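Below is how a single chain appears once it has passed through the pipeline. First comes the sequence as given, then the structure the pipeline wrote out for it. We keep one example in the README because the format questions we get most often are answered faster by looking than by reading.
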Amino acid sequence: MSTSETPSVETKIDGRAGERSRELMGAARQVIPGGVNSPVRAFGPVGGDPPFVRKAQGAHIVTEDGVALIDYVGTWGPAILGHANPEVIDAVQKAVRDGLSFGAASAGEVDFAELVCSMVPSLQGGMVRMVNSGTEATMSALRLARGYTGRDKIIKMDGGYHGHADFLLVAAGSGAATLGLPGTAGVPADVVKQTLLAPHNDLDAVRAVVEQHPDDIAAIIIEPVCGNMGCVPPQPGYLEGLRELTAERGIVLIFDEVMTGFRLAKGGAQELFGVTPDLTCLGKIVGGGLPCAAYGGKREIMEQLAPLGPVYQAGTLSGNPIAVAAGMATLKILERDAPYAQLDAMTERLARGIVEAADAAGLPFTSNRVGSMFTGFFRSGEVRNYEDAKGSDLEQFTTWHGAMLERGIYLAPSQFEAGFLSVAHTEAIVDQTVAAAKEAMAVVAG
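Resulting structure:
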């Protein structure tokens, strides 16, 4: 079976949780908080129980209820080659035969680091260190920036998500620039007091924060294309302005490319937009679907890490040989096949079709897309930041999500998440999705 074919399952279309998924969710709630090991898997924002996944192949996932769904979550980004790519599976199976983990240096780590550094502009001539998750990557990069600059404060954008480290879980107050307040229980106010916020895509607001703390800012961290307020691209000149501002002030510019790395271009968003940060955080695709992440950049900064320098960071499973094998296979395929024009065309076809479906139903709807990332917002007007995204009609989104799931389309259960295409999404699959979207938009319109 090719990776674009539909797995052989029962002839059902409706992807809502069936009897088996509901049974599993009931059991899960007894032993796992909320029944899920990550809150984004819960269906709280859209109601009901999530379908449990049995397997995945190509552009489809198969639920425990025997339904094959067209998947636009893609394990939240990593499945750029489609699920269960044969070359990646083969690489993992070969690596497994030699052991699951060494806790020691291996040749594969070196080869992988060389490949990653060769692909990402900010790592070329620099260095990279492997970790196990995007949260580890961003947390470590910010610690490194603080150690390198000798400063304590950092700036992040309102609505930007960079993992669940305490000092990054902040909620914004009012005003263009504000001190962070804890965004979740369990985070002391003192932990986030060094985290400053500014609205996304507002260069003047960032400048104002820097002017208020001219000698205290260690780093600015940003998703060059946001994915956790929905897909929100940078406004013209925004990334360039941040690069200029940070260079002038000796501030470390960090691109969180956990989502965008290797997805928007071989070298990520920094290649696509032509702006090179000082440090880059990578995840998701870099591990080919296994737990793996990395951060890296300028040699003079990276050499501050232990054992060379005073900034400590460690991880027993970092550079795990199985994850390295999956990541190496994935990146080599992306480098060899250069599928980005194909991905762009397929995603444009999908996004345009969904917009046309909303227009035909008379619904206010805005679509954002960069490469193979996309989000449709149930609102009129541009979505340039988190405040704009929050203006979406969440009731309409909930109805839309359920109607699409009934028609065999699996979307993220939140208005504020990006969707992703893979090379396994063919024209026929996209057209099937657009046909479902037309019916679903009619349901939303009532």
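The chain has a mean pLDDT of 95.

See the next section for the split statistics.
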